[in-house]
Fold:
Amino acid sequence: MSPADRFRVHSVTKTFVAAAALRLAEQGKLHLDDTVEHWLPGLLPRGEGDTITVRQLLQHTSGLSNLDDPASSASLDSELNKDIAHVFPPGELIALAARQPLDFQPGTSWNYSNTGYLVLGKIMEKATGLPLGTVLARQLFRPLGLRSTTFDAGPKIGGRFAHGYIADADGKYTDGTTLTAGAWAAGAIVSTAGDLATFYADLLAGKVLRPSSLRSMTTTVRASGPYYNLQRAGLGIFRYTVFCSGGKQREAWGHTGGNPATTDVVLASRDGSRVVVLMVNTGGLLPETFFPRADAAYCRAAAAGS
Structure:
């Protein structure tokens, strides 16, 4: 592997999608308080589309199921066991999640939801009349010079890329690079460490969004989950507590991503002056395994800049 290799960034895609959505809001093409029903009438059952806003989709406060209930998981796993390269259309995944009741009333709590970003991607397409990949390219990839970054919803990756591997109980590895499932707006971007560093540096330095939009993006609510140093959730970006040697703690902004084949994490200072990108080409790693590596690199960078 080389730092110049392209790799699937998985849920780090959500920061890009959020930034593009905020740029569309700046351009008057959508509004953060628009409802799902406004853009996609009838997509969600039981009147739920009237109660969920774009802002809630961005911040994981919509209450939409994350497709992690036993019935949904079994259905998805069955297809992937037949064909590891199978790609679920976003509409199919949204419909599957919509069968489940909301986890909570929109805006009253927080729960990570890939489904919310699939719905958000559909709204962005409706608002622009363009495929989501084209929206991302026009709003972010091209203006920021991210030449190695693409939106690849299918199993193939162009150019030189890092393969990801799935380990079984016997320690044997299967190439899982084609495993994309239903990532789409929730995780279909392919990029490099350099492009990710550029994007987060420019974003947090205020070169991508207007000051008011960046304030909205970094206005957080309390978050919870399996990531031991995740503290607060903004719009498509998280605020982390990074643990350095000597008991010192530092704040970082970024996102993580992963599937059974690869894992990645981005940690950045609030002003974008320091960015650490870590990609590991085997998946299923516990946060306790890869986060300390990213923490250590971020602490070294922060110490060098202080």
Summary: The first helix runs from residue 13 to 26.
